[in-house]
Amino acid sequence: MDDMDRENETPEARHVSRKTVLRGALAAGIAAPAVLMGGPALARTLTGPAAEDAEPTPMCDDGDGPTVAQIEGPYFKPNSPLRSSMVDGSGVALTLSGYVFGRGCQPISGVLLDFWQADTNGAYDNTGFRFRGHQFTDSRGLYTLTTIVPGLYPGRTRHIHVKAQAPGQPILTTQLYFPNEPRNNTDTIYDPRLLMNVQTVGGGRQAAFDFVLNVAQNPGPTPTATSTTTPPPGGGTWAPGVAYAAGARVTYGGVGYVCLQGHTSMTGWEPPNVPALWRAG
Ligand SMILES: [Fe+2]
């Protein structure tokens, strides 16, 4: 059995397949706004009409719990630029997209996703921000990253690093992997539950991965952040709805904070709640 066959037959690979089914349902436009507003749970939407309402809300994680965490590694840097494209003309084009769900299988908007990876030669940019960038899931819980296939470096299989954080929730730090990579079998960090679904399209690759964050979701409205508050003039005290730049200083609850990543603040993203965005000091 060669490497490709072994990976294709693992139970873990089938987990990815099920998430792909869920993702496909969303992409087909099945009641996405209703899902976002707390309508029928996603899996139930797939399987039948509202007559099945008495059933418990299915999980979208196949019983394994939320997307597993992995080590950060030595190359994370805060202050990555806000961008969904990290291409610079080098390497094999890779488009990675997917949804971010909570435990109730409902997509979550406004999730901060911070990606970093090696360049096509397997090197990280530790002085600048090549192949580093963060973005937020849109109103449908969708993200798209335009990048390149990362190169290999000694001791590891091919991978992409990511931090994911829903508003007001803990950070998930993990890594995503490519199927059919020979080094997957020897990399002790590699986890097949984190395999992307990767297709070759033209001269590039299209990859899909849906995250499931450990965020409780009830049948009611999802805890997505919204803001109707008008920020106070002059700043100084943290407020929602303000476009803060990296390096901006605010106070919140009598404590000073420094902004680590440019973003527009939201209720639920108060500085103590989002260490990816604010550092006390
Ligand atoms: Fe790495």
UniProtKB/TrEMBL annotation:
Show the GO cellular component annotation of the record.
extracellular region
Range of residues in the leader sequence: none
Keywords of the record: Dioxygenase, Hydrolase, Membrane, Oxidoreductase, Transmembrane, Transmembrane helix
Give the SUPFAM superfamilies listed for this entry.
Answer: Aromatic compound dioxygenase, Carbohydrate binding domain
Q: Which PROSITE patterns match?
A: TAT
The GO terms describing molecular function are:
carbohydrate binding; ferric iron binding; hydrolase activity, hydrolyzing O-glycosyl compounds; oxidoreductase activity, acting on single donors with incorporation of molecular oxygen, incorporation of two atoms of oxygen
Domain Chitin-binding type-3 intervals: 235-281
Annotated GO biological process: carbohydrate metabolic process
Q: One Pfam family, please name it.
A: Dioxygenase_C
Instruction: List the InterPro entries.
Output: CBM5/12 (IPR003610), CBM_sf_5/12 (IPR036573), Intradiol_dOase_C (IPR000627), Intradiol_dOase_core (IPR015889), Intradiol_RC_Dioxygenase (IPR050770), TAT_signal (IPR006311)
The source's superkingdom equals Bacteria
The transmembrane residues are: 21-43
- Mind telling me which PANTHER family this protein's record contains? DIOXYGENASE (PTHR33711:SF11), DIOXYGENASE, PUTATIVE (AFU_ORTHOLOGUE AFUA_2G02910)-RELATED (PTHR33711)
The record's comment on protein family reads:
Belongs to the intradiol ring-cleavage dioxygenase family.
Supply the name of the protein: Chitin-binding type-3 domain-containing protein
- Natural source organism: Streptomyces smaragdinus
